[in-house]
């Protein structure tokens, strides 16, 4: 085949191509030079043409480039074409496509990208050594007292450039699989995410990935396997490191964060450490440790309030006001533990068959497997304790005694006519969703059943009652049903009643152990539009933000450095002009990244305006019954190709014998 003009006949995926030997081989060291030199064995069809089992359409584009040194990219999937170029080894075209692909991506993210908090510089858990926090200069002298690792931050309202600073050692090794740390490079090289990294990189990823991320007001806590780092957001400094917990011997399983909005120590609510403005709880197994941090002076003071034992593994850790609450629903050994800020006292109590909870004001509501809804009034505890009893009081009993698996409380705004109208939505193991209400004038009579929905066939895992919507989620691939709520003078009304809104799925193929830190939602205050965060596969850098009311896609978030998202949460952070709703993501690389969802949510929640002449009324309520908000089939297949698919729908749950199946 020394004649450059020799004709080569190819059969690519069933389509015949004819070209010259010179055209195929002018780019050196490609698939074609190896094929025509005999280094790759050839397979020929019945007509003697060399068979190549690839996409003929994309191959035609590559062949035209080899002929003309030019290419038309109109209506072409650049990523797919680039993949074929990499397969055939057409380096000149592959580089051009890489540049085209990266023109729309940046290591500084897109318009929604709000901040970047780099991972610790050390590959081992930090020790209590001196460090320096490169946030506000006022905090630089506090590091030795608060055990802060040497970190720098980068946010939209900070001038620090973190693209080349604070990169962990494994990041350079990872970049060899692609082209640096760009998002497009990491996305485009699937092999880099499929176990081809050096062993030491995987070890680092397992030990130093962000396990949990929590937020309260303008503070966030980023939890690794054995320590927690706290950051604060200010308008002048952006995000900066304020405190770090001591290194824990046991794996951190739950954290809780409580930050004060006020200033000095006078507003301390009785804490021992004067001037405490943030509290951090950490749970490992059955043990809970609680710290108070005072940041109003220099250096930052860290005080260990105590180490408490719940007696069983802590499954939920939260603050109700200044009180720290630990809950466990381990079958018949369900327990609740409360540390009260005014008495500095830790108290535990058995809570029969605890399955779910929610908070409203000073109330902690507890759902049980026996169908009862109980509550603890934290404002009255411990002033009205009886024989060291937490005063767990039964509020309501399900009429069919179905196990309660989800609960949501909504307190209507107080008006001149009445006080708070208490509304509670709850879901059961057999798929029922019920709404109960209690008028403040009928407190002694308990809540009354308002409405029942029996459209789900699987256990309810989530329920949310807000000002405008009732949202329920069942265990069948997170199947969501939503209803529009009618209100009269702020109170839920039967005229014209609750109307169905949408049905969709928030598919998430993750192990149950990962779900507590990757809760899909819904997130948001109850007087605004709520959202779901959809993370389809475990090792992905892509999240889908969707409206909870109809499933419509708000936006798609991709990590700026291509690292997989390990955990996430949505939080309201106060800004100079208005609160910002931020999506906070922890990553396997050890970094934390955040996006401002405020503007896209406002835009997506606006009613669709009717278009003149199309015959449609448009407006709210006119959406398609199956909204297109999750990943498209193409996006889903691409996500699933990078992971081992081992998921099955939830097993069918037998219907309650005393409840017939009703039509939606």
β-strand number: 39
Question: Low-confidence spans: pLDDT under 50, at least 5 residues?
Answer: 122-205, 262-274, 611-626, 647-664
Kindly report the average pLDDT value.
75
Major pleated sheet: 5 strands, antiparallel
The number of helical segments is 11
Describe this structure in words.
Strand 20 (354-360) and strand 21 form a beta hairpin. The chain is elongated, with a radius of gyration of 29 Å. It has a 5-stranded antiparallel sheet, with no helix packed on it. A 4-stranded antiparallel sheet has the order 8-9-10-11, with no helix packed on it. A 4-stranded antiparallel sheet has the order 12-13-14-15, with no helix packed on it. The chain has 4 domains: 7-102, Potassium Channel Kv1.1, Chain A; 112-309, no CATH class; 311-397, Thrombin, subunit H, CATH 2.40.10; 407-576 and 591-654, no CATH class. The protein is α+β, with helices and mostly antiparallel strands and 664 residues long.
């Amino acid at each position: 085949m020394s004649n450059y003009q020799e004709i080569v006949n190819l059969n690519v995926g069933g389509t015949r191509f004819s070209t010259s030997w010179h055209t195929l081989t002018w780019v050196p060291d490609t698939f074609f030079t190896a094929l025509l030199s005999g280094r790759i064995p050839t397979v020929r069809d019945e007509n003697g043409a060399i068979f190549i089992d690839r996409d003929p359409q994309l191959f035609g584009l590559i062949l035209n480039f080899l002929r003309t040194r030019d290419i038309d990219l109109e209506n072409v999937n650049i990523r797919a074409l680039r993949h074929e170029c990499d397969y055939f080894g057409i380096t000149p075209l592959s580089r051009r496509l890489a540049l085209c692909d990266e023109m729309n991506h940046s290591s500084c993210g897109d318009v929604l990208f709000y901040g970047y908090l780099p991972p610790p510089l050390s590959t081992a858990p930090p020790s209590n050594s001196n460090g320096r926090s490169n946030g506000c200069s006022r905090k630089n002298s506090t590091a030795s007292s608060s055990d802060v690792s040497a970190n720098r931050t980068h946010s939209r309202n900070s001038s620090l450039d973190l693209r080349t600073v604070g990169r962990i050692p494994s990041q350079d090794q990872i970049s060899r699989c692609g082209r640096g740390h760009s998002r497009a490079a990491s996305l485009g090289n699937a092999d880099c995410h499929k176990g081809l990294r050096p062993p030491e990189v995987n070890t680092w990823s397992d030990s130093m990935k962000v396990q949990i991320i929590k937020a309260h007001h303008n503070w966030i806590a980023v939890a690794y396997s054995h320590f927690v780092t706290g950051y604060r957001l200010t308008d002048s400094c952006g995000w900066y490191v304020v405190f770090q917990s001591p290194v824990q011997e046991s794996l951190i399983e739950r954290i809780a964060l409580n930050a004060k909005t006020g200033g000095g120590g006078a507003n301390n609510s009785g804490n021992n450490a004067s001037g405490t403005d943030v509290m951090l709880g950490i749970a490992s197994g059955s043990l809970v440790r609680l710290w108070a941090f005072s940041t109003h002076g220099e250096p930052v003071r860290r005080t260990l309030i105590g180490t408490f034992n719940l007696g069983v593994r802590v499954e939920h850790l939260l603050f109700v006001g200044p009180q720290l609450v630990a809950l466990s629903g381990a079958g018949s050994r369900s327990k609740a533990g409360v540390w009260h800020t005014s008495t500095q006292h830790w108290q535990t109590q058995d809570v029969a068959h605890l399955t779910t909870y929610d908070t409203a004001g000073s109330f902690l509501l507890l759902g049980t497997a026996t169908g009862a809804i109980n509550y603890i009034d934290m404002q009255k505890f411990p002033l009205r304790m009886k024989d060291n009893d937490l005063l767990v009081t039964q509020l309501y009993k399900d009429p069919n005694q179905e196990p309660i698996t989800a609960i949501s409380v909504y307190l209507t705004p107080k008006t001149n006519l009445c006080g708070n109208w208490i509304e509670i939505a709850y879901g059961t193991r057999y798929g029922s969703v019920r709404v109960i209400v209690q008028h403040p004038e009928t407190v002694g009579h308990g809540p009354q059943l308002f409405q029942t929905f029996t459209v789900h066939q699987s256990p309810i895992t989530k329920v949310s009652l807000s000002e405008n919507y009732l949202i329920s989620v069942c265990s069948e691939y997170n199947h969501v049903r939503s209803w529009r709520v009618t209100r009269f003078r702020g109170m839920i009304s039967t005229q014209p009643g609750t109307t169905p809104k949408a049905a969709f799925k928030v598919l998430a193929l993750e192990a149950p152990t990962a779900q507590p830190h990757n809760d899909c939602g819904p997130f948001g205050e109850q007087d605004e539009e709520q959202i779901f965060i959809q993370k389809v596969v475990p090792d992905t850098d892509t999240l889908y933000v969707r409206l909870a009311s109809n499933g419509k896609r708000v936006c798609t978030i991709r990590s700026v450095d291509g690292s997989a998202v390990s955990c996430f949460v949505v939080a309201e952070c106060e800004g100079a002009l208005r609160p910002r709703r931020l999506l906070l993501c922890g990553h396997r690389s050890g970094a934390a990244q955040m996006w401002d969802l405020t503007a896209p949510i406002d835009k997506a929640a606006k009613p669709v305006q009717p278009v003149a002449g199309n015959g449609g009324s448009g407006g709210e309520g006119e959406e398609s019954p199956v909204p297109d908000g999750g990943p498209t089939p193409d996006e889903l297949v691409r996500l699933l190709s990078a992971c081992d698919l081992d998921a099955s729908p939830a097993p069918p749950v037998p219907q309650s014998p005393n409840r017939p199946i009703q039509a939606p």
